[in-house]
Amino acid sequence: MTPEFHRIRRLPPYVFEEVNRLKAKLRAQGVDIIDFGMGNPDMPTPQHIVDKLCETARDPKAGRYATSKGIPGLRKAMAGYYDKRFGVKLNPDTEVIATLGSKEGFANLAQALTAPGDTVICPNPAYPIHAYGFIMAGGVIRHVPALSPEEYLSGIDRAIKHSAPPPSVLILSYPSNPTAQWVDLDFYKEAVRLAKKHDLLILSDVAYSEIYFDDNPPPSVLQVEGAKDISVEINSLSKTYAMAGWRVGMVVGNARICAALARVKSYLDYGAYIPIQVAAAAALNGPQDCVDEIRAIYKSRRDVLVSSMKRAGWDIPSPPASMFAWAKVPEQYKDAGSMLFSKLLIEEAGVAVAPGIGFGEYGEGYVRIGLVENEQRIRQAARNVKKFLDQSGQILSRVRDLETEGV
Predict the structure, then answer these.
(1) Are 243 and 237 in contact (CB under 8 A)?
(2) Where among 241, 262, 285 does a domain terminate?
(3) C-alpha of 241 from chain center
(4) Residue 394 belongs to a domain with what CATH number?
(5) By Cβ atoms counted within 10 A, which residue in 146, 185, 293, 307 is the most buried?
(6) Residues 238, 101: contact at Cβ < 8 Å?
(7) Strand-strand pairing, 119-124 and 34-35
């Protein structure tokens, strides 16, 4: 029998796949699923961005290879965005790399920076690529509980003291996927101080930097004096401009780290289709009222979700940022755990969420809810949830009976 491939052996079964299979099965049976499970924007990409794509695609030379680090116009636009949004000056030639979405950028950063056995400090719960990008690259993850930014920050020193070999990379991710929390500049100042003290590189994922609901926008770690000495930031156009399927992201900051990423990418890809890159530059350089409109849609959905679920009997904390809510499993299903709760919620209520255990062991007892359905569908979901919670005794009794029968 052929043994399983080495890198695949290092990856656990993809937790979300079990929920996705159940979702697909029910849909095939004609069940209407209200799907909050995946952070997949449902709104259209702003028209002026689509128009630029179409215009550029008509150029006979548009189908030629681009460059692996991104065309100069896009890198210049990305540097301009950081200047306008954060007041951070970047050299587009040495401190900006255009990536095929933030996920690819993060995974290839892990390949560029990691030697076998290197230790990486990672928040838990976290978006899976934060840990598994490094695991696939041969690294070892030191998980630090991160149900709040304060908990994560306070746990970093302890993790460093108890890690052998000493960690080489510190991962930050705010606004957070999945917890939806964000941090102020003081958090980043302390993180940079700790990183410099312990000779760590910082990788900061800010893919949700433009999806916030309070008056003060989330900051960048690169705003901290001296942060660029040791830090890069991974960003994305996916949620900001509803361009998830376009796959446009960026890694910006420390020139040495950017050069390492550029070298890895030079062996792997030639960059995105040129019209996509030109359209992405138009998004960053053009009018930003579309970003305000997208943000307002998420805010309205957030408010409807929180209020309607509260009436249904499920208290969901109001997220200050991101396109997600992070909620404890309702008390009636607390002992069931996040996976069983999520499966029962799909089967009995036609509502899909992401089980918290899929984001790490400290995500157990929670679920992530994506703001990716319209307000009418959110209200319908809440009505379904109310019935589901009201019938929890009967539902859990059926589950116990099936377990007893060995089904």
Answers:
(1) yes
(2) 285
(3) 15
(4) 3.90.1150.10
(5) 146
(6) yes
(7) unpaired
395: CB partners within 8 A, 6+ apart = 344, 348, 388
Are 273 and 324 members of one domain? no
Tokens of 253: 């900051």
Q: Compute, in degrees rounded to 10, the torsion defined by CA atoms 52, 219, 292, 105.
A: 30
pLDDT at 2: 62
The pair of structure tokens assigned to 81 is 């965005």
Q: Considering just the CA atoms, what is the radius of gyration of the chain in Å?
A: 22
Rounded Cα distance, 165 and 2, in Å: 33
Structure tokens at 12: 């656990």
Structure tokens of 75? 């890198």
* pLDDT tens column, 109-160: 999 999 999 999 999 999 999 999 999 999 999 999 999 999 999 999 899 9
Answer yes or no: are the C-beta atoms of 232 and 253 closer than 8 Å: yes
Q: Residues 265, 371: one domain?
A: no
- Residue-range definition of the domain harbouring residue 38: 6-44+290-405
Characterize the bridge pairing of strands 231-236 and 249-253. antiparallel
pTM above 0.90, yes or no: yes
* Residue 5 exposed, middle or buried by CB count within 10 Å (0-12, 13-18, 19+): exposed
**Which residue's entry shows tokens 């656990």?**
12
